[in-house]
User: What shape does this take?
Amino acid sequence: MQVYLNGAYLDASEAHISPDDRGFLFADGLYEALLAYHGRILLGEPHAARMRAGLTALQIDTSPADRLLELGERLVALNQLTDRPALIYAQVTRGSAPRRHRFPPAGTPPTCYLFAKPFASQPAELFASGCAAITVPDTRGSRCDIKTIGLLANVLANEAAHAAGALEALFVRDGVIIEGSHSNVMAVIRGELVTYPSCNYILTGVTRNCVLDLARTMGIPVREGPIFASEVYAADELFLTGTTLEIMPIAHLDGRPIGAGRPGPVATRLFAAYRQLSQ
Ligand code: PDD
Assistant: This one.
């Protein structure tokens, strides 16, 4: 596998990062995960814009965001992934410098790393049956809008889901289901598509925004507002959106059925429209 590291394309076995890298020492960096179909990145501009906004917030050089799509597509081609779906992972950190909390000296180059690998969707049977999810308290901070590599709470939440035989863990903050460990959450309540508003407590997903646009185009009413954990079982549908989970219906939450306990018509229609974008 060919990867990109700091200006060079090289074999993955040749890619080395210093133990002084601030990504390793402080989780001082961010990442993007993108899909490519037929060698072209899906929804590339919003991914690049989110990376640019995140780098700006972290006061890291934004030039990796300017080159994200070019580097990603080049890697897809180099790894001969143009004939199948590919997942591109891109990470930028504040670079390598002796450990101290404040920023390293000006001019310290950021570390920029990308890899691409074949992307396998979740099994078709899971989309057909709907998945299980659990709820967990949101123990994260208040800058969840930045796609930081500091993902410890997300990792622990996702592991708890896995241990419970579920696919995803949904973070609950002040009684409201706000997002998943690596996805956004949407509900259909009394005919409206409801999802938590874009703010500092969630990562505003590229897939989320795309699905909201698709819903508006299809005439489905959209509301950015709370999904109360206490009322979620009255929802007709609940589903996840994200680059890797695509649009995944939730059939059971904490062991109880949502709606009819199987995927509903809104998620099914939106998923069909979303899949069309990658044709
Ligand atoms: N995660 N919320 C969180 C916390 C996420 O980590 C992600 C994506 C999303 C959905 O964002 P998008 O639709 O832009 O993929 C929401 C990626 C896929 C990951 O961590 O691998």
Remarks:
- The pocket of N-(5'-phosphopyridoxyl)-D-alanine is lined by residues 33, 154, 179, 182-184, 203, 205-208, 241-244 (CB under 6 Å).
